[in-house]
Amino acid sequence: MSVKESNLHLFRFRAELLRPKHWPTWAALGVYFLFTLLPMPVLDRVGNRLGEYAAKKNRKRFNIARVNLSLCFPDKTEQDIEDMVLGHFRAQLRSAMHLFIVWWWPEFMVRRKIVSEGFDQIEQNRQQGKQVIILLCHSVGLDFAVASISMDYSSNGPYKPMRNEVIDFMFTHGRSRFGAKHGGKLFTRDDGLRPLIKETRAGKVLIYLADEDLGMTNSVFAPFFAESKATIPVLGRMAKACNAVVLPCVSCYDPEIRKYRVKMLPAIEDFPSGDDVVDSVAMNRAIESGVLECPDQYLWTFRYFQTRPEGEASVYE
Questions:
Q1: Is residue 309 part of a domain?
Q2: Structure confidence at residue 113 (pLDDT)
Q3: Which residue of 95, 118, 165, 251 is 20 to 30 Å from 175, comparing CA positions?
Q4: CA separation for the pair 294, 298 (Å, rounded)
């Protein structure tokens, strides 16, 4: 199967999604659809309450977020950390209540829910003969960032399939529906880096997330806030291979105006340097800048510090 065709199954509906084992998921989506009929202010209140409930019930994820925040912000008090974790759960469930917007709303209505900033850098760099890699932060509103980019630019990017096939279909469909008219593509990790590099060299904007802990293999340790983090030093190599500039980007929900602010930050300077560690440090600092735009909306429930330097014990219980 060619690279061009290898991912079509990710975002096209297929008959096996109607098998009985998927009926509970479809039923849950039906209930979710009913919630989407509520006004946004009500949805936000529901999301906040669900977040508070999840924070109480899912102590495992609560503790992961608390450990992450304590490591990254050692100067904050214990109460500050608790408040940030609770704020994160509220933000996460609130944004989950907004996914229907990028899944089902027509494009002109989605645009009304997004305020874009700094996107002029894309064309400025293209005019200078550079390709563009967007370093996207793992915030709760990342799907709105993907929508804001793919509505106007031919893009490509990696995607991690989800275990639940129906939910996987919903997310991949949502992330590809606007980009389809521009020839946008999604690739899984199994596809490797080659198709991403090929498409980016051809002029597509690469949407790339690089902040997960993928293990010790091929990683280097670089600071992330106040802690050392296992980091895959791929971004610098890809930027060099594609002759690309790297623009950090973050999506933050503004509850005052009930819209997502998608902000493109200034390009990472002197990048790539040719040194994996130096580039990893620069990349993590760029991600930090995005996180600080809306700290409680970063996905703190990920195990960002699972991989430890030799001899160090796990920070997670």
A1: no
A2: 97
A3: 118
A4: 7
Whether the pLDDT of residue 2 is over 60: the answer is no
pLDDT band at 183 (very low <50, low <70, confident <90, very high): confident
Helix and strand tally (H, E) in the chain? 13, 9
Q: Which residue has the tokens 């904050």?
A: 76
Residue 317 has pLDDT above 80, yes or no: no
Instruction: Assess whether pLDDT exceeds 50 at residue 70.
Output: yes
pLDDT digits over 82-101, tens only? 999 999 999 999 999 999 99
Helix axes 40-57, 78-96, angle to 10 degrees: 130
Do residues 136 and 150 lie in contact, with contact meaning Cβ atoms separated by under 8 Å?
Answer: no
Neighbours of 71 (CB within 10 A): 17
Report which of residues 113 and 15 the model is more confident about: 113
pTM of the model: 0.93
Question: Which CA distances in Å does 224 have to 72, 218, 280, 282?
Answer: 7, 18, 10, 10
The one-letter code for the residue type at 282 is A
- Per the structure, the complete domain to which residue 155 belongs is given by 8-297
Q: Is residue 147 part of a domain?
A: yes
Contact 188, 161 (CB under 8 A): yes
Residues with Cβ within 8 Å of residue 286, at least 6 apart in sequence: 135, 246, 248, 265, 268
Q: For the chain, how many structural domains are there in total?
A: 1
Beta bridge partners of 221: 230
List, in order, residues 6 or more apart from 155 with CB less than 8 Å away: 149, 179, 182, 184, 204, 205, 206, 207
DSSP reduced 3-state for 258 = coil
The whole-angstrom separation of Cα 303 and Cα 317 is 11
For residue 65, being part of any structural domain is answered with yes
Contact at 8 Å (CB) between 221 and 228? yes
Mean pLDDT for the chain? 93
- Say if 3 falls within a structural domain: no
Could you identify the residue written with the tokens 């995607």? 159
Best CA proximity match to 198, nearest among 62, 3, 1, 21? 3
Residue type, 106: P
